[in-house]
Amino acid sequence: MESDRIFQFQDEKGNLVVNIPEKAEAAYGMYTWPCAVVLAQYIWHKRKHLLINKHVLELGAGTALPSVVAAKAGNVASLTLADDTHQPRSIENCRISCAANSIDVCGLKLNFVDRKPCIKVEGLRWGEVNPTFFYGQLKGLLPYPDVILGSDCFFDENIYEKILFTVSHLLEGKMSKIGPHEDKPYFLCTYQVRNANSSIGDLLHLWNLNCAEIDLHSFGGDGHDIASSGMPGNHEIRMLKISLKD
Ligand SMILES: C[S@@+](CC[C@H](N)C(=O)[O-])C[C@H]1O[C@@H](n2cnc3c(N)ncnc32)[C@H](O)[C@@H]1O
Prior knowledge:
This protein is α/β, with parallel strands linked by helices. About 25% of the residues lie in helices and about 25% in strands.
């Protein structure tokens, strides 16, 4: 069964209506998780500066609400929506969400030159070296991201290290390309507290990363009904900014 979920972001300076098609199926990438609306609200709240002229990549995007808000309101230089290479239907969902919101996706592989901003959909499995990313970045055809987005990617302890491996690799790649006065790349993620005993603290250390918590109240992410969606409801959501240690 398919249905459309409507999100209405608004403040005193504007409004944005986003339509996300969802499917009632067991796979994680088929519907929008409560974390997504919190991250999307952050992007909406900071749309005037956060992502302007930045290369942005969303990991585990699924229905891709944060990316849709970034594409519509963020003035990005480029945006890549990525999901698990082994779950083509989740990757297809990224495309469906773009189409539902009149966002053109670049058809050509590895082409970031012709159109600005260029929006792409790719497979990227955490913990693995993805040939498209590896080759594209090596050849300078696919940008290393300035900002990586991830909503509800830390849903299972077994994949924590895989995500952090991928994030660390991408951040290291970008760091090797920037000058001393340019902004450091970072990973913005929201996660749902499902098990108070599980933590990524040791893994952050292992992968040379540190993190700062972002206060949800500072951007209107602490409500129960963000963007008139009924989400995140009573779920406990937290937000982190993760970057490489100095
Ligand atoms: C809980 S869902 C979150 C989806 C979306 N970000 C949201 O918040 O609505 C987790 C997402 O991670 C993707 N995923 C799961 N395992 C993955 C892996 N090993 N590599 C890359 N993506 C993965 C799933 O396909 C799914 O889209």
